[in-house]
Design a protein that fits this description.
Layout: E1 40-41, E2 59-60, H1 64-77, H2 85-100, E3 105-110, H3 119-128, E4 136-140, H4 150-163, E5 166-170, H5 201-207, H6 213-234, E6 240-242, H7 263-277, E7 284-290, H8 295-302, E8 311-316, H9 323-333, E9 338-343, H10 349-354, E10 358-363, H11 374-379, E11 384-385
Parallel strand pairs: 3-4, 3-10, 3-11, 4-5, 5-6, 6-7, 7-8, 8-9, 9-10
Antiparallel strand pairs: 1-2
């Protein structure tokens, strides 16, 4: 994590971004290259934001045999397996991602301001300059003052879903040793107390051991989040959820613990509690790492296992869109969709050609000024899905 990552005010949901990398021109494995001429499914985009246009859509279901195989793999990895309307919505998202895999990619940004949770998407659309709006929206359950805005981001998530966007939530969680009023401490790079105090080994063991004091505290935290996920479920929304992100990092309390009892164990606990205990079969689970130089070695050390995630996502700040990073994520994903969950710089069109299996990519909005030419270029790229190209979730 770079020292370029910077805090924001208490009422703005935060993460920070670091250094981004260039693009690779190395061809990607044996998969089909991304193309723009495959069969499409249309959607009337009349419910979209002002500025979006109604088109007959760039959604590509992909080759039938490939898509069917991908869906089977994705469905097997999600342990929800329900038949409710919420589970059906979740499967619709998974089918969509499998269908665009190798052909299209959604584009978006993390909307950091929980008081105006579409402001960054609005800015990206303005920078695109062609009347198109992002197809991927994300917000943060947050900490400190942002905790009071959770209902606000639920309502925005419902609105974005109704318009056809992919909807995601992340979670900058305070340590379970304190309440959710913790603050961004702004410590130097490499420290483990950016979100409150780091945990000792004994505290970590207590956290991941059923019946432990911190284990119960973490479940209490999840009980709170479950009320908001339930609202989304009741509204028919199947959101992506990216908890404990960048778990191979060293800047937050949940990170930097490799192996079966480490960061991935807490991810498994989080998944099982929300899915099995709280009955939230609408969530699409995202497992996330950052592009450190150690990524290839980190993938197996932090992997929670294929039963625990639906998407493997990379944050691109340090080493960039290298073929090594791409192959490492494909290996960890084991046939499931991959995405770029955060980045300083969006991938160049040549990167999308060389690495066709990214299904979405999202900027961190602190770096809009670094990408003033790339955003318009990608919003005009026929292989990039904007909101008016999305097929809708009904």
């Amino acid at each position: 994590m770079s020292t370029q990552r910077r805090p924001v005010t208490a009422l703005v949901v935060l993460l920070a971004g670091g250094c981004g990398g260039g693009s690779s021109t190395t061809p990607a494995s044996a998969e089909s290259p991304r193309d723009s001429g495959s069969p499409t499914l249309g959607r009337d985009a009349s419910g979209g934001r002002t500025g979006t246009t109604t088109t007959d859509a760039g959604f590509d279901a992909g080759a039938t045999s490939d898509a069917a195989g991908d869906v089977a793999e994705v469905d097997a990895g999600g342990s929800e397996g329900g038949t409710s309307a919420a589970s059906a919505a979740r499967q619709t998202v998974l089918t969509f991602l499998a269908g665009i895999r190798g052909h299209r990619a959604a584009i978006g940004v993390e909307d950091k301001d929980s008081t105006q949770p579409h402001a960054d998407s609005d800015q990206m659309a303005s920078m695109a300059g062609n009347g198109q709006y992002p197809s991927f929206w994300s917000a943060d359950w947050g900490f400190g003052g942002a905790v009071a805005d959770r209902e606000n981001i639920v309502q925005e998530g419902e609105s974005q879903w109704a318009q056809g966007a992919l909807v995601q939530y992340i979670y900058h969680a305070c340590p379970p040793t304190e309440d959710e009023s913790c603050e961004y401490s702004g410590g130097p790079a490499g420290t483990t107390d950016i979100l409150g105090s780091s945990l000792t080994d004994a505290q970590w063991t207590d956290l991941v051991t059923p019946g432990g004091t911190l284990y119960q505290a973490w479940l209490g935290r999840l009980d709170t989040l479950a009320t908001f996920f339930q609202q989304l479920k009741d509204a028919g929304v199947a959101p992506l959820f990216r908890p404990l992100h960048e778990m191979n990092g060293s800047w937050a309390w949940w990170q930097g613990r490799p192996g079966p009892g480490g960061s991935s164990k807490l991810y498994q606990i989080t998944h099982d509690y929300l899915v099995s205990t709280k009955g939230l079969d609408n969530i699409v689970w995202v497992w996330n790492l950052q592009d450190y130089t150690t990524l290839a070695a980190d993938v197996p050390l932090y992997n929670p296992g294929p039963d625990y995630f639906d998407i493997a996502a990379l944050d691109v700040y340090d080493t960039g869109y290298t073929d090594g990073n791409y192959q490492a994520m494909l290996g960890g994903a084991a046939g499931k969709p991959i995405g770029v969950a955060e980045c300083q710089l969006l991938p160049a069109p040549g990167t999308l050609t060389a690495q066709p299996l990214w299904t979405y990519f999202a900027m961190w909005p602190d770096f809009f000024s670094d990408d003033t030419t790339q955003i318009p270029a990608l919003f005009d790229d026929p292989t990039v899905l904007t909101l008016s190209n999305m097929p809708g979730w009904k």
